[in-house]
Structure formats: C-alpha cells, structure tokens
Request: fold
Amino acid sequence: MAEKTIFKKIIDGEIPADLVYEDEQAIAFRDVNPQAPTHILIIPRKEIASIDDLTPEDEPLMGHLFLVAQKIAKQENLTDGYRTVINCGEGAGQTVFHLHVHLLGGRGLTWPPG
Ligand code: 5GP
Reply:
C-alpha cells in the first residue's frame, strides 16, 4: 500500500494538528508554517491527491470545502478579506498530495502571487 500522506495521518489522528473545524466530510487545521496571521488548511476526509484527480462525484464536496472556508473566515474574524488557494502539481508549489484549500488572511495580500 502507498505511504500515507501527512494529512491522512492528521485525519487518522496519528500526528497532532491544531484543529479549528471538523465535520463528516472535512477537517481544517492551522498550517505549521504560516504565511499570514491566519493560515488554515481545509481538507476533505476523502483521499484525493490534487485537483487533477477530481471526478464528477466530488463536485458537491468541493463546494462544501468553500462553505467551510467561509465559516472559518467568519470564525477568525477576517473582515478585511481573505484568500483561498489550491496548488495543483509540483510546478504550482504543491508539496502534500492530499487536496487542500489554503485560507489566508489577517494581513494585506498582494496580487499576483509569487
Ligand atoms: P502545498 O505546498 O502542498 O500547497 O501546501 C502544503 C502545506 O502544508 C504547506 O503550507 C505546509 O506548511 C503545510 N504542512 C506540511 N506539513 C504539515 C504538518 O505536518 N502539519 C501542518 N499543520 N501543516 C503542514
């Protein structure tokens, strides 16, 4: 069997994480190397490596992840705006191959990103 990703180990409770949200479909926790005062990762419990691996059945799940982002943004009081990012593939900076939405806020965010 393939080696579990670090995020699957977090889902399975094998390594600790600073959880901020969880439900039947998703969990969210603080990034260990935050790039903004609020930097949270929202991940599906289902193992999907990247956007490239999505199938039509994942459509409602992806919508759910963004509603979770909205909920957490309110929880974190990100009233001045926030950014969601999904890196897809090594060339785009993806390092953990379990799909995740970055939620960044709490500081000004410039465009374009690096
Ligand atoms: P990616 O580069 O794949 O889009 O994002 C992976 C993110 O996961 C990075 O921002 C990295 O800091 C974070 N990360 C990697 N390992 C861990 C970990 O063990 N715990 C937590 N909380 N975040 C992690």
